[in-house]
Amino acid sequence: xxxxxxxxxxxxxxxxxxxxxxxxTVLKLGHVSSADNVYxxxxxxxAERVKEMTGGSVTVDALCxxxxxxxxxxxxTVQLGAQDLAIxxxxxxAQFDPRIDIFSLPALFEDIPSAKKAVFGKVGxxxxxxxxxxxxxxxxxxxxxxxxxxxxxxxSVNAPSDLKGMLIRSPGSPVMNATYKAMGANPTPVAFxxxxxxxxxxxxxxxxxxxxxxxxxxxxEVQKHLTTSNLFTGFGMVVMNDRKFQSLSDTEQKAIxxxxxxxxxxxxxxTEKCDLDxxxxxxxxxxDVVELQPDQRGPFFKLARSVWPEFEKRVGGRDLIDxxxxxxx
Length: 329
Fold this sequence. Notes:
By secondary structure, the chain is α/β, with parallel strands linked by helices. It is built from 13 helices and eleven strands. It has a five-stranded mixed β-sheet, with helices on both faces. Helix 2 runs antiparallel to helix 10.
């Protein structure tokens, strides 16, 4: 009996050794920004919380710096299911469903807190659900570039009339082009990689960017004036292949969404702080900083919103735009 018992135990142990452990799901998340960018910091927080909330059954491998391609290419790969998640600018997702370009419209939100309230609210959820149904891409969380400001070398900007004839760098966005044309400026296409040199050499007079960018990319070295116009609020959307999401257990799905919510809150907080740091740096180095209050932004917003009719059909209709704006109050 002792010998038989030893044989049975030995066979059990051998079987146990050969039996594989429960499979761990590894999700690949890619983006184009640097390792010190808000995108990546948020992605690392997301990865940390997913692992904790799932007990390690799901982990996220966050890859920065365009290791998996540019953001549009990554979004396509996620849609096809060859990549699990990607962080993509909302305007670059418009080719998958033009309605998501609603976030590219000017003068939607007064500031980062109001934008966050809208994006994290019911109308934001409705827009993301429509996007999921149309594309198979689920928005797990969002992050922000910041509330955009105007920087230039020509003069202080306190009213739209100060922009008349100014050469403002444009990334080629029809919405941004229409917005600045409405104010009398001349949108001029310049690749982002060439912008610093273009400003330095006065190929363009100014550009539209967040104070955070002014700080991190040192645009204060080549520009004299900054105005907090808040005409645009840029978004990064963390999209996941919905089939992959649905393949996970209910518990894992809930964990991913909860971790995304936390990572989104964290990312938006980082962006808001970076904007404030950018303004402080601009003042410290002697830039002429005009911080427009909501009533002072009124003339800018009025002209900017005059371009909405040109794009409202594309983004889901005027009612949806109005509800999004109202949800930010």
